[in-house]
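User: Predict the complex.
Assistant: Input components as received:
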Amino acid sequence: MDNSQALAACGPFSSAERDAVYRAIYTRRDTRSQFSPEPVPDEVLARILLAGHHAPSVGFMQPWNFVVLRSLATRRKVQALFREANEEAAAMFPAERQASYRALKLEGIVEAPVNLCITCDPDRAGPVVLGRTHDKAMDSYSTVCAVQNIWLAARAEGIGVGWVSIIDPAKLRAMLGIPDRVIPIAYLCLGYVHEAYVRPELEVKGWRRRLPPEDVLNFEGWGQAGANEPLLALMRQGMEDGPVRPSPCGMS
Amino acid sequence: MDNSQALAACGPFSSAERDAVYRAIYTRRDTRSQFSPEPVPDEVLARILLAGHHAPSVGFMQPWNFVVLRSLATRRKVQALFREANEEAAAMFPAERQASYRALKLEGIVEAPVNLCITCDPDRAGPVVLGRTHDKAMDSYSTVCAVQNIWLAARAEGIGVGWVSIIDPAKLRAMLGIPDRVIPIAYLCLGYVHEAYVRPELEVKGWRRRLPPEDVLNFEGWGQAGANEPLLALMRQGMEDGPVRPSPCGMS
């Protein structure tokens, strides 16, 4: 192949385009209760799935599969798996947190017209995969990159996504006939939304707060040696202002 | 809290905004050789890191840390770790693939002015985490969502990102002083790029091809029962046309 045609000039987005990317990132929510029953057209679902299929993957292995579930009967069975797991989950919390845990609505499996199980096939590119040789989890991580692409593309399409992780993966695998070698990574609920939380629902409901930047930022190594105060100050300011402050929804 | 203020009207993006999100998704590349040495200003790095910090996370635990590395001495030491691992990796491939493996440039650790080690702290929110009760990997997956947000935000800023996974994670942890409980998830190289591959570099160089949609799509369960031909056809068409076909780079 002529590599001179493989490269193209490349630069930053226009500020309007850049703001749109940040808007998707900042207004993306984990949706559980706001799904509209209106169907998601195949044209829209195809765009969202292709966004997932164009995620980065280790050694270009593309280990993902997208299992599209529209059948109400199947979604009801998955919801039963969620309920079983959620009872087990509630019992694991300290006594004083169980009531607030049980008060949260954590899934919209039946309300959302499209469910999507995204899996990782470790055998997709043979036993030795470029880039997976020193971290066996790299194929799962690639699959999660596809999930995040799907989540952001869906946001741009006006479609909310909820990730339901309170399900026994082995039982889900058996129910959907997924081979033993294949790992269910994410179970997503998708549907149009007409309103959304401005901040994460778990923050609004007092479960946990957003961490300040000094809790997540390190410089030149773990011990904060050579702390970069200007960068920290900019991040603090960005969190106060919102680095991009579009109306969270609505047309701009 | 007054929940009536917590929700806001919500809809699809304008078509220009939507195209910008898809443009970021489709023109994002794993960058190894195109880094410019020009420094990345703190203002830009702060926006990119905040995009990571606004990723979804299981139980809103925000398990990530972002270790910013600019020191050339540290980056040279990390590059030595890469070289050691890459020799081991090359030897794992079948004899007939070793030459083409060795011909690939797989990192830009020293050329990229900013490196970023993104880690996952499983203890960030106590032993029982909402949503992690039935899949222990959910905290790592949340961290990968932060990586993908960073990758897309960087693309919008004109900054290329390369994910270097061919490093022994235990040696990287020791070098950066990361506590034993904390998992290094991604080691990223960041820098401005002025040209980029139109298609993934591993595809251009003949390592692997993009899979057709029928290889990654399933309906109502693993066995393709109830195959949705219209959706498959739309995905095939989208892959031929490119669902969004902006100039891959350059100002729009």
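Confidence is low (pLDDT under 50) at residues 245-252 of chain A.
Let me know if you want any component modeled separately.
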